[in-house]
Amino acid sequence: MTKSTTAAVRRRSPLVFLLVAQYLSAFGNAITIVTVPLYVLHTTGSAVTTGLAGFVGALPMIFAGAVGGVLVDRFGGRRLSVLSDLSAGILVLLVPLLDATTGLPVPLLLALLFARTIVATPATAARMTLLKPVIEGAGARLESVNSWYQAAPRLGLVAGAPLAGVLIAASGSAVGMYVDAATFLVAAALVAFAVPVTERTRSREELAAGPGFFGQLREGVALIRTMPVIGAMTAFVVVTNFLDDAFTPLFLPVYAQDVLRSSAALGWFLGAVGVGAIVGTLLYGPASRNILANRRYTLFGCFAVVGVLRMMLYFEPGALGVTVICFLVGVAGGPLNPMLSTVMLERVPEELRGRVFGLTGAMALTAAPIGVLTAGWLVDLAGLRVPMLCFALVYLVLIAVSWRSPGLRAMDERPGAGGDRDGPAAPEQGARIAPDADPEPTSGRGATVR
C-alpha cells in the first residue's frame, strides 16, 4: 500500500466509523421497536402495561431532543454521542439483568424505559454535528454521504425488524434486549476511539461566562426564526409530518383490514414503503448532481408525487396496486431527508448545530401524534376514503401556498456564493446576539421527515 493510499484511508476512516455507528444505532432501534413490546408483554402479561411502556418510551423524544441539543453545543458532539449511547446501553442492559436476578417491578421497568429514551435521544443531534467535519476531512460530497447516512434508519427498520423477530422467536425477548444494549455500547466505542474531536472544547470559564441553558435554547430558536431557509424548511416539515404520520400507522392498517380484509397485506405495504424509501434515499446522492440538483424543485416535486400517489388510494386499487403505490411513495420521499439535512449542515454554524437539529427534530415529532389523532377522528366520522383524499390534497395545497416562499427559494443558494442573501454571516450573528427572542415549540434514536 502506497503512502498516498494509506493517507486516504486515514482521512476516510473517521467517516466510515461514524457511518457504522449510525447503522448500528439504526439496527438497535429496530430491535427496540420489536423487542420492548414483546418483552413487556411476556414479562407482565398485560396489554395495558405494554401500551403504557410504549407511551412512556416515546414521550421523552419530544423534549429530550431539544434539551439534548443544548447539551451537545455546550459540551461537544463527540462527548455527548459517546455518553448518550453508553448510558442508554447500560440502562437497556439493566432490564433483562434485573429481571433475571432481583426481579423487575413494573414501575421500575417503566422508569428504565423512560430514562433510556431521555439519554438516547441526544445522540442523534450529536452525531449530526460530527458529520460535516468528517465529510470534509474525507474529501467527500455532503449530498452523497448524507444519502448513505439518512438511509440508516430505513435500512435498519427493514432489515433489523424481521431479524429481531427471528431472534426473539429462537432465543426469547431477553436476547433482543442484550443485542439492543450491545449496539449502543459498540456505537459509543466507535465514536470514542475512531472519530476525532472536531469542535473546540470550551473551558469551564467560557461556559460560565456565556448564556445559561435557557439562553442557549433561545439562541437556537432565534436562529430558526431569523434564518428564513431554516425556518421555512422546519415549518414545511412540521406540516408534512402531520400528514405523513397518519399514513403508515393508521390509513394503511385500516385499509388492509376494512377494505382488503387481510392483515397480511399490511406487512407487504410496510415492507414496500421501507424498501422504496431505501432506494430513494440512496439514489439522492448520484441524482443530486443533475436530475435533483435544484433542491426547491426536488422538495416540491417529491411531495407532489407523494400527494398524487396517495390520492390514488381513493380508488381502492387492490392489494397489488396499493403495494406498488407504497413502494413509489417510499422512493419519492427518500431524497427528502438527505437533502434537508445537507442544507442545514451547510447553513447552520457549528456552535449551534446541536440546538437546531434537536429543536427541529422535536418540532417534527410533536406534529406526528397530532396527525394520527386527527386522522383517526376523521376516519371514525367520515370513513376511510374521504380523509385519505383530503390528507393527500393538503400536500398539493401546501406546495401551492409555499411556491413563492423566499425561504424555500434560498435552499439553492450555496453559502459563500455571491447571491447568498441568507448565508451564515449576518443571520447567524443576529441569532447569537438575540438570546431573548420569544421561544417557539427529525424510536428513541431520532427521526425527521418520514
UniProtKB/TrEMBL annotation:
Topological category with respect to the lipid bilayer: Multi-pass membrane protein
Annotated region described as Disordered, given as residue ranges: 411-450
Extent of Basic and acidic residues compositional bias: 411-423
Stretches assigned to the Major facilitator superfamily (MFS) profile domain: 1-199, 230-450
Classification via CDD domains: MFS_MefA_like
Annotated keywords: Cell membrane, Membrane, Transmembrane, Transmembrane helix
Compartment(s) of residence: Cell membrane
Pfam family, one: MFS_1
Residue ranges crossing the lipid bilayer per the database entry: 15-40, 52-72, 79-98, 104-130, 151-171, 177-197, 222-243, 263-285, 297-315, 321-344, 356-378, 384-403
Domain of life, per lineage: Bacteria
The name this protein goes by in its record: MFS transporter
Species annotation: Saccharothrix lopnurensis
